[in-house]
């Protein structure tokens, strides 16, 4: 077992606030009109929206001037025209509404049959008291005024609300590109990565590891698309799965860069699947000294090589089984045996990160070429339950009085020293712009399908770069090559950060963590499970969701330091564009996003209304002259009249 680390970084949803980019940036996954964001602190955004609201209010007043002018010239008064300006052009909104109220009241009375007849007659008779000197001769002025007021009140609320994404909750902001991050290397931050690796566990512990508790809600940018099924077939050969126990399959679909928290132009996405089933350990169990050993590599003529990465030594023969009828679980309870989880093969034997010339070949019962296979072994130790555990992973049917002072209380002890789940993990990469009927690779192991997608994206350009791949990748906006860049800068980080195998193996090796759900009560070994028949499914789902959150948090750390070094042969401009430092997206309640194009559309439209309304107020007579000139101007279609007018003007004789 490796050295145990104690992480010292507490989880905080706002720890990246000092890295937020303040300014205008483009979010690539949104439509063009809403893609440009102006990120400001909440107070600054409030001031901007206050100015926008004031401009909308001013536009409302000037819009009334414009509408009043239009109505005046389309509904002329029947009075004798005077040499002075039309008094209707000075009509206020309140006067227009007051003059229209009797007409509005009559309309309401005619619609409502429930009003008393006496009240209807009284209101109708009183509505004809309008002074003959009032300039309003039509209720259209009042109705137009009410419509304008209502419209602009609605706009005064909805426009700022829409511009600031107010209906969508905490905004998604982008990290800024820092010099420290640009100059850093991934190897210089290995200790930081290790110290921050267990934040997902700490976050879930706030909800006692309940996947529906909501403790992880502030972190994902979009809700994950996850499906769960129960295949009836065993994921392994040799019938090592326990009979009559369906497997459990959980799949996370469409893991795009946005899901991982990265602002990207690439349309590549990934699917991740984990399938687990309770299995019998017997095919991997061998006698060793006074006990036995679980050994997962393929057997050869060489003696078994015991190693923590590929084997687990047991104290007993793990009966009842082919070797012994002894209850190994009861024996280990009496001897106070260990209570832990072990992943076989251990880290890093199951990943071949270091490109060893001979990758580990597993036992033929466990080996699969289209996935990564591993065992999760539980040693029950002092576990005890108040009821019998029919769950095959936590199987406990040995009834025992564990409290000498209380002869009336018995607990159920584990049946075996060790039980196991067999799991396979698969990845699939998809490229929606592909013309293929199925734009996805096959389901496969962590590295094989990555290579398959990378080969597909780059195949058509294999003869175009003439040895200078840097130039080809730097200066192309083709979706295929953009996706190649993203495969190198982001998706190469995915397996080690999102894989459930890595999630389990790293925590067991470096942190010596027990990854079972936290007990519902204080006593560690007195376990109160959620389900006495299929608790193992709840455990697998919990691992999956923790690994998902852990992967998102690990990618977010790209705002702090370099997670993966890019080829130094690329230009500085390329590194600034494709390093994760300036592309990390995350939630922050201390900032506000304003729709940049929507803001300027609102400002320009309101300003035009204000200017036109002011022109109507200041120069109504001049505007009337312009309108008359437009009305009397000859049309372009009347060529003969224009020729005749031109001839008379040039030849008065």
From TrEMBL:
The chain crosses the membrane at residues 43-67, 140-163, 596-616. Keywords: Membrane, Transmembrane, Transmembrane helix. This is Uncharacterized protein.
